[in-house]
Amino acid sequence: MRALSLVAAAMLLECAPDAAQNALLDRIRRVDEGVVRLSYAVRDGICGDGATFIRDHARGEENYISFEGRWNRSDRYKADRVCEPGPARVAIHKSGGMVTRVNVYVGRTWDRSETEVTDLGEVAAAEAARALIGLAALERRAGKAIFASTIADSVVIWPQLLTLAKNDDVAISVRKDAVFWISQAAGDAATKGLADLAENDRENRDVRDQAVFAISQRPADEGVPVLIRLAKTNPDPSVRRKALFWLGQSDDPRALKVFEEILTKG
Question: Does residue 63 surpass a pLDDT of 70?
């Protein structure tokens, strides 16, 4: 499995414009014990307190990400909280050459650490994003590296995330993380990629279910038509049920029409 994962990472990185992206991943992988640190610029609208939360202003003032790695909505982190616009700081914890966890922060500076630290300093955002995706392809406990890549400045990463999500040699938990963050990407092409995952009957069940959920997180004009198609035409009963469930959560008038059609035919 690990040898195959190395191939998977190579496939994800092969479109890199130069060797720097591979070099950064190699530097991370060469560390056997302790914590690897790196920092990089974040995209506009991203800020954080450097310890407990990260906010994306594009989602509204009440949207934040906690360290469960999912966007939440709460008034706990109101605008009066300090929210610094970068840099992103990533701490990759390693033991025996393997990643044990990844922590992601935005803002402030590093505290002193009791653990052995390898500090790679500030790196280019695109370089960081590619290396972090490559790390996620290799390590089943590096799923949060995917989120870390999504906040990097001036990068488009959903095509690489889609490649990751489709790769059978990557840990299921990491593939599901990739699917979730694809759902947060902008554009019809990202939605199409999710639909392809959901409709592939050879794909892993958990990944397909996550793809249906991810489609439900897309803007209504993109996601609802795909959910309707899945609910009405997909041959897999489980996919149809998932699509119907998320249509029921959408508050979209088109969903009610679908329910009426199905019940009338039944």
Answer: no
